[in-house]
Amino acid sequence: MATESKRLVRPFLPALPVAKRRRGRLVLPILIAALVLLPVAILASEMLHPSLEMWEQLWATILPRMLLNTLLLILGVGVGTFVLGVGLAWLMVGYRFPGRPFFERAMLLPLAVPSFVMGFVYMATFDFAGPVQTALRRTFGADLRLPDIRSGWGAVMVLSLVLYPYVYLLARAAFREQAARTVEAARVMGYTRAQSFFRLILPLARPSLAAGTVLAIMEAMTDFATVRFFSFPTVSEGIVRVWEGRLDRAGASELALLLLGIAVVLLLVERAMRGQRRYYQAGGRSARPTRYTLTGWRAWLPVAVCSGILFAAFVLPVGQLALWTIEHLTRGLNQSWSAVFGTYVLNTFLLASVAAGITVLLALIVAVGVRMRGGHFAKAVARLATLGYALPGAVIAAGILMTLAPIDHTLNRVAKEWGFTPPGLVLTGSIVGLIYAYVVRFMSVAYNSVEASLEKVKPSMEQAARTMGARLARIVWRIHGPLVSHGMAAGMILVFVDAMKELPATLMLRPFGMDTLAVWSYMAASESFWQEAALPALTILLVGLIPVSFLMRIGNDGHDVSTTH
Amino acid sequence: MRTFTLRRAAFLALIVVLVGFTFTGASAQARQIVNVYSSRHYGAMEAVFVKFTQETGIEVRVSQGSAQSLVTRLEAEGAQTPADVFFSIDAGGATLLAGKGLLAPVKSEVLTANIPADLRDPEGRWFAVAQRFRTIVYNPAKVKPEELSTYEDLADPKWAGRLCLRPATHIYTISLVASMVAALGEEKAEAVVKGWVANKPQMIDSDTRILDTIAAGGCDVGITNHYYLARKIAENANFPVKLFWANQADRGVHRNISVMGVTANAVNRENAIKLIEWMSEADKGQSADVSGLAGSNWEFPVNPAAKPSEILAGFGEFKIDALEFSKYGEFQQKAIDLLGRAGY
Q1: What are the chain A neighbours of B209 within 8 Å (beta carbons)?
Q2: pLDDT (0 to 100) of residue B156
Q3: Residue B343: is it exposed, middle or buried by C-beta count within 10 angstroms (0-12/13-18/19+)?
Q4: Which CATH architecture has domain B132-254+320-341?
Q5: Residues A273 and A417 in one domain
Q6: A111 and A255 fall within a common domain
Q7: In this structure, are A317 and A391 located in the same domain?
């Protein structure tokens, strides 16, 4: 597997065998895994005393619809991202057409668009009162009725457009590794190009494709804001709804368990899809694939397809946001943005960088521990510590509140009893709770980056250091640190951007006065203040382009090698 | 060089962490401030607060959230809450909080003089600072006002495929249905909601967008708060949607209030009271120019001495459903379950 795919799917893949297992200490990694699991465990303990009444009530009311919608969303986004991601990846690896190197990179751009932003842009642009349908009615008559975008298919379309890059990235890497040799082998066997794709390349790439698709589905499943914009309530949305609407924490937590259950099932399906089989590429790094050169109108077909997707998933949202921002800044009836923009940028930057710093440091500790120890147990610890990516922000936030609030209240009670001034809500009322949520949620992103670069450190270096009597901490600081600093930097950037985009946990846990750009944008958008929502959304999106530009640099073939056909 | 990168990164992370903790805790010691939990999302910082700060030098810090989530939060924070003022778009939240002992009584002659008795808590735990009405809006090209009468009438099959409504997640819907439960009883209210559902309304989670859709011909009739229409009319005097005051022949149009209360554990209690008093003054928070609630958001003033803006006056006289605000919270819980049962 190429590095890019490892970054994304590492939790699914067994760690590479370390040359010689070393007796490192796993205490810290275990503690970190426990820290990550604690909120989930506390949440799960709710199961011991279920509120049957609430379940009855929910089952009689919104639960069936939420469950059905969640399943439809999983299916829809699964199919949508699979078709888009795999199709585009095969186009890039298997064919040669005008502008291919550009498109190969550009198709990653939608990664920078937060899904709820895409949601409100599409809503405002394509709903009945939006400019597109209005123009169509002007042309084709006022009675023109198109299917309502405020529905399941609208949500599926929007989420597929922002999430397909996950599948695309992994599929492209997998195809590239196989393509050259496999296609040649297939030709020898007399397969056509299509046959070799469907019969050989696709099945061979199955582990990566399953991983990418499950990743995309997880993201869709944990989303609550986009489906809310599209009036398509899912379980994720229901958690927030029960949390807020019924003022029922226990109820929300139990609903969260349901979602957790679905996530676990998904992961099991993914593992089953992968099976016990592992596919190896014979020989070393494969040669550049020979691409089939498309000519004539056929050459322009992929150009049209790629341009269309790129327009829909990136150019349109960015353009619309830019227009709104300009409108807001120039014409703006309400100039209140200037009073808060600086604060919100600062808050966002602060939260995201603290989250990035802490998460990557913890990830480094886990990764080093696992590396020094090796073995199944260590791998299991790493897998547990990075479990949070499969949990919706709302679930994590619920668990963390239930974990930290009692501590806070005990602290205050004890302080009062001993005659001190109560310290206030030091955990839940500060950024601690929120940072904790970010750490749990984004640990896997950080871990994968650190781990990928740690693999490049030769065991002989550690051995040499040990022979010279260096202690573990010193080895980490002097040998691993410098060598993995790139991985750490990449991890920090990824966590930074993810934290910046994060919405549900931020909404539920942000302390007083710590509103972020995402919160601001969501609040304004939910009142249809598109112009006001655009400024923070565009800011998030532009910062989000930084990690995307890094991703763009790796795994490309650069200029096409001339091929014959 | 590479060693430096890591050290620098670690060091930077540490600094940022430390700054983060001190920043959240200690930044507001010297200045005069008042912390507001607000469920109003009319811009990141409301014009009224900007004006208040200009006049009094007291900085207003706002944290927004849905009414329900703010109630949850105040409850969870208990005695340690940072909030001094609870500012809600819904009476239910305020009465619920008051019932839980999370809002403190305030005795203020200014407030008793400015706000009529039925618009504040007898014990002074909450005060309405603006009134909002959720009523029927329609496209005059497609609907004659004579065809309209009540919220309940919208359950009639003649409105099939012609309605735009707001989803059940929003407090506006919950509160309106709560008022129907209060007036009609649960059974009848549920039948009405089922009738709405049977008419296959378009569910749009934004009053503004409901108005846009009606204007564009996407549906004929909707239910929105009056000030969203006022805002549209302020932008475009010929906005092709009209307001109809619902239920005038019986209980009157559904009212809700923008309501403020001082939290039981307010650290800046003096400033909190100052803010609410300022909001209640006819020439300040109540004024019809942009610095007042009535002017910046087209809500109806509560202070009888304040004049509503011209656009509001244009909506005409109307009768108000006099349901006690203290009942809102209780009926809202019933309404939430009812909406779920009815498949809304």
Answers
A1: 123, 127, 129, 528
A2: 95
A3: middle
A4: 3-Layer(aba) Sandwich (3.40)
A5: no
A6: yes
A7: no
Residue of B nearest to A138 (CA): B216
Q: What is the number of domains present in chain A?
A: 2
What DSSP character marks residue A479?
Answer: I
Same structural domain, A127 and A62? yes
- Residue B15 at interface with chain A, using a CB cutoff of 8 Å: no
How near does any CA of chain B get to the CA of A366, in Å? Answer: 16
- Chain A residues with CB inside 8 Å of B7's CB? 481
- Provide the number of CB pairs (under 8 Å) joining chain A to chain B: 188
Asked if B16 lies within 8 A of A353 by C-beta distance, the reply is yes
Q: Residue A438: which domain range?
A: 15-49+334-515
Place of tokens 């888009």: A84
Is residue A213 located within the same domain as residue A76?
yes
**B172 contacts in A (CB within 8 Å)?**
none
- Classified by CATH at the fold level, domain B31-131+257-308 comes out as D-Maltodextrin-Binding Protein; domain 2 (3.40.190)
User: A485 touching B, CB under 8 A?
Assistant: yes
Task: Identify whether the C-beta of residue A520 lies closer than 8 Å to the C-beta of residue A537.
Answer: no
* Helix (H), strand (E), coil (C) string for chain B: CHHHHHHHHHHHHHHHHHHHHHHHHHCCCCCCEEEEEECCCCCCCCHHHHHHHHHHCCEEEEEECCHHHHHHHHHHHHHHCCCCEEEECCHHHHHHHHHCCCEECCCCHHHHHHCCHHHECCCCCCEEEEEEEEEEEECCCCCCHHHCCCCHHHHCHHHCCCEEECCCCCHHHHHHHHHHHHHHCHHHHHHHHHHHHHCCCEECCCHHHHHHHHHCCCCCEEEEEHHHHHHHHHHCCCCCCEEECCCCCCCCEEEEEEEEEEECCCCCHHHHHHHHHHHHCCCCCCCCCCCCHHHHCCCEECCCCCCCCHHHHCCCCCCECCCCHHHHHHHHHHHHHHHHHCCC
Shared domain for A427 and A477, answered yes or no, is: yes
Instruction: Measure the CA–CA gap between B158 and A278, rounded to whole angstroms.
Output: 63
The type of residue at A263 is: A
The alpha-carbon gap from A401 to the nearest alpha carbon of chain B, in Å, equals: 9
- The strand pairing partners of B223, in sequence order, are B136
Asked if residue A363 and residue A344 are part of one domain, the reply reads yes
Considering A307, A331, A355, which residue would you say is the last residue of a domain? A331
Chain B residue closest in CA terms to A57: B337
Measured between alpha carbons, how far is B177 from B164 in angstroms, rounded to an integer? 16
Using the beta-carbon criterion (under 8 Å), do B218 and A245 form an inter-chain contact?
no
pLDDT tens digits for range B269-316: 999 999 999 999 998 889 887 777 877 888 999 999 998 888 899 999
pLDDT in tens, A131-163: 888 888 888 887 777 888 888 999 999 999 999
Q: What is the DSSP letter of A291?
A: P
Residue of A nearest to B18 (CA): A354
Contact with chain A for residue B46, Cβ under 8 A: yes
DSSP-derived secondary structure for A86-144 = HHHHHHHHHEE-TTHHHHHHHTTGGGGS-HHHHHHHHHHHHSTTSHHHHHHHHHH-TT-
Between strands B221-225 and B163-165, the pairing is parallel
Query: Does residue A290 fall inside a structural domain?
Result: no
Contact B72 A247 (CB under 8 A): yes
The DSSP code sequence of A78-91 is HHHHHHHHHHHHHH
pLDDT tens-digit series, residues A176-206: 877 667 777 777 888 887 788 888 888 888 8
Tell me the average pLDDT across B28-57.
81
Residues A69 and A45 in one domain: no
